[in-house]
Structures are given as C-alpha cells and as structure tokens.
Amino acid sequence: MDWRILIVLTPLLIAGGWAVFNIGAAALRQVQLFLSKES
C-alpha cells in the first residue's frame, strides 16, 4: 500500500469519526428526550 494514500486518508478519517461522534451524541440526547417526554 502506498504511504501517500494513508497520509491523505488519515485526516479525513479522523474528521469523519469526530463528526459521527458529535452527531451521534446529539442524536442520542434527542432520542432520550423524546422517549422521556412520551412516557
């Protein structure tokens, strides 16, 4: 595997993972809020 591909993809994967982590946390809070309001 070419090391240049890794150098290009690593920051993109880190940024993507960070975005998914933040959006996932917010989505989880929304779901919990929705479920607590329903009961």
From TrEMBL:
Q: Which GO terms describe its cellular component?
A: photosystem II; plasma membrane-derived thylakoid membrane
Task: Describe its assembly.
Answer: PSII is composed of 1 copy each of membrane proteins PsbA, PsbB, PsbC, PsbD, PsbE, PsbF, PsbH, PsbI, PsbJ, PsbK, PsbL, PsbM, PsbT, PsbX, PsbY, PsbZ, Psb30/Ycf12, peripheral proteins PsbO, CyanoQ (PsbQ), PsbU, PsbV and a large number of cofactors. It forms dimeric complexes.
Q: Which gene encodes it?
A: psbY
**Ranges per topology, Lumenal:** 1-4, 24-39
Membrane topology of the entry: Single-pass membrane protein
Function, as annotated: Loosely associated component of the core of photosystem II (PSII). PSII is a light-driven water plastoquinone oxidoreductase, using light energy to abstract electrons from H(2)O, generating a proton gradient subsequently used for ATP formation.
* Keyword terms, alphabetized: Membrane, Photosynthesis, Photosystem II, Thylakoid, Transmembrane, Transmembrane helix
One Pfam family from the record = PsbY
- Claim: Transmembrane is one of the keywords in the record: yes
| Protein name, UniProt field | Photosystem II reaction center protein Y
Report the main location listed first in the record.
Answer: membrane
Which NCBIfam families does this one have? PRK13240.1
GO MF terms here are:
manganese ion binding
Q: Specify whether Transmembrane helix is a keyword of the entry.
A: yes
Q: Which segments cross the bilayer? A: 6-28
Highest taxon above the source species: Bacteria
Subcellular location as annotated: Cellular thylakoid membrane; Membrane
The record's annotation in InterPro entries points to: PSII_PsbY
Query: Can you cite a GO biological process for this protein?
Result: photosynthesis
The record's comment on protein family reads: Belongs to the PsbY family.
